[in-house]
């Protein structure tokens, strides 16, 4: 028997859009996290219906492409809505994708946002984003609008249904709004200096995590993407924060930076705690914890 299907809310630390590169592949546990399909169900769908055929490494491990992850998420969305996987498996791929998109967006604010992205209507997109931010507040906007939109934009892009120019437009407008919200800092709470690691330009998930930290009472000072670690240290000594928060979506890049990351706690001011999140940090989390890092958005516990 399979565990009940429950589609996840997108992670507050990383999304498929944040993780996607042209040659990035995903292990089965990552696919389970991103789709809400447990590994047993993924293997069964592969065996019985051949919906996707992941790469098989010599050690037997499966590796899924970003396009396969997005397609599996479309099937999962329809199955959660009551459709049968056996019937869906007989349909053309494009029909499955269209039905999944229609079901997710029908009657929701997400539909209007995505329509503005697809039509390159910046003015309308900015107005819709401002409206949703005003209605929901920064944390609600991040969780209920930004993360689902990031998931949808990422899926459509990797499936070839959305041009890169439209993805860039969505990022430009949404990230500008998020960064503006973070500048409206709470007073009296502990200070967190935050930045993406060198080479890291994916900000959607990280900014949403910082919005949650701000809601919890932190004063967040976001320095930006692709920041050298030496500059993070300099900013920490200037601001003397309670925490330095970092983000990485790429496991390979995180491993390259691991020596610098392991040295970082000793270079920070006394009582400044390093926090790191994102899919890139997962593989080295134990080593980082040994050096005093807190992992994930839970590291902002006051």
Give an account of the 3D structure.
The chain is an alpha/beta fold. It folds into three domains: 16-103, Multidrug-efflux Transporter Regulator, Chain: A, Domain 2, CATH 1.10.1660; 109-181, Methionine synthase domain (Methyltransferase, Methionine Synthase (B12-binding Domains), Chain A, domain 1), CATH 1.10.1240; 186-300, 3-Layer(aba) Sandwich (Rossmann fold). Helices cover 55% and strands 10% of the residues. It has helices spanning 16-19, 28-35, 39-49, 66-80, 85-88, 93-105, 109-118, 122-158, 164-183, 204-215, 229-239, 251-256, 258-267, 285-290, and strands at residues 25-26, 55-56, 62-65, 191-196, 219-222, 243-247, 273-277, 294-295. The strands form two sheets. A five-stranded parallel sheet has the order 5-4-6-7-8, with helices on both faces. Helix 8 packs across helix 9 (164-183). The chain is globular, with a radius of gyration of 20 Å.
- Radius of gyration from the CA trace? 20 Å
Strand percent estimate: 5-15%
The oligomeric state is single chain
Provide the low-confidence segments as ranges: 1-14
How many discrete domains?
Answer: 3
Tell me the name of the CATH class of the largest domain.
Answer: Alpha Beta
- Give the CA-CA distance, first to last residue: 41 Å
Helix content: 55-70%
Under CATH, the topology of the largest domain is which? Rossmann fold
Instruction: Quickly count the helices.
Output: 14
Largest sheet: 5 strands, parallel
List SSEs in N-to-C order: HEHHEEHHHHHHEHEHEHHEHE
Shape: globular
Mean pLDDT: 86
Q: State the fourth-level CATH superfamily of the largest domain.
A: Cobalamin-binding domain
Briefly note the structural class of the backbone.
Answer: alpha/beta
């Amino acid at each position: 028997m399979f565990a009940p299907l429950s589609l996840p809310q997108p992670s507050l630390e990383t999304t498929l859009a944040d993780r996607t590169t042209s040659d990035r592949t995903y292990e089965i546990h990552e696919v389970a996290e991103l789709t809400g399909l447990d590994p047993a169900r993924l293997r069964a769908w592969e065996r019985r219906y051949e919906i996707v055929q992941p790469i098989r490494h010599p050690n037997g491990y499966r590796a899924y492409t970003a396009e396969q992850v997005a397609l599996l998420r479309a099937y999962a969305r329809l199955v959660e809505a009551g459709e049968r996987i056996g019937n869906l498996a007989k349909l053309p791929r494009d029909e499955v994708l269209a039905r999944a998109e229609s079901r997710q967006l029908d009657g929701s604010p997400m539909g209007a946002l995505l329509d503005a992205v697809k039509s390159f209507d910046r003015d309308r997109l900015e107005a819709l984003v401002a409206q949703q931010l005003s209605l929901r507040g920064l944390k609600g906007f991040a969780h209920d609008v930004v993360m689902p939109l990031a998931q949808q934009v990422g899926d459509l892009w990797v499936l070839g249904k959305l041009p890169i120019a439209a993805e860039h437009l969505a990022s430009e407008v949404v990230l500008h709004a998020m960064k503006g919200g973070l500048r409206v800092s709470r007073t009296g709470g502990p200070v967190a200096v935050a930045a993406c690691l060198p080479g890291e330009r994916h900000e959607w998930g990280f900014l949403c995590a910082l919005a949650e930290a701000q809601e919890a009472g932190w004063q967040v000072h976001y320095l930006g993407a692709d920041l050298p670690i030496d500059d993070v240290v300099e900013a920490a000594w200037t601001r003397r924060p309670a925490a330095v928060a970092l983000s990485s979506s790429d496991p390979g890049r995180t491993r390259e930076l691991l020596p610098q990351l392991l040295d970082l706690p000793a270079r920070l001011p006394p009582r400044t705690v390093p926090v790191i999140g994102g899919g890139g940090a997962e593989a080295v989390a134990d080593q980082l914890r040994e050096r005093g890092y807190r992992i994930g958005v839970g590291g902002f516990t006051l």
